[in-house]
Amino acid sequence: MSGKWTLDVDAMEEDFFSDCALIGIVSAMPAYKLCWRLNNTLDIDFVREPELDILVQKPKAVQHYFPIYQYAIPLSGCRHLMYKLKSDKEALLPEIKQLDYLWLIQSHKAAHEAHMAAQQLRNIADIQLAQILDIEKLKNLSNLLV
After folding, report:
1. Distance between CA atoms of 117 and 24, rounded to whole angstroms?
2. Into how many domains does the chain fold?
3. Could you report the per-residue pLDDT of 3-16, keeping only the tens digit for each?
4. Is 38 within the bounds of a domain?
5. pTM across the whole model
6. HSE of 110 in the Cβ direction (CA atoms, 13 Å)?
């Protein structure tokens, strides 16, 4: 008889969010257009990754899908994820429901990269806000695990 295995979400969160930084973005642009604009302006390559999409199931079988775009810098161990934070009227992270997007940077120099990226985002006309967020203040981090 085998014992039960339990999933340690706290350990997963600690591993996933170590060496990372978050940028909150407010923009009325659809996700595909925002990523296209960032790809062309910042010389990066966000690509939609449907298998990473987050599904949140609410009572009465209401499903909300939150698309994710990814950019992994080859041979660097650096990964960028762009989360769309709203689906209809549902927010992926209720504590920051005023934001439209969340840019997560996973890198050994994530804080510096986030600072530089936020400065560049502020110069893009269709982006109203780009602000670095404190990970410690977010309550529903497990919603971002992919």
Report:
1. 11
2. 1
3. 777 656 666 666 66
4. yes
5. 0.85
6. 23
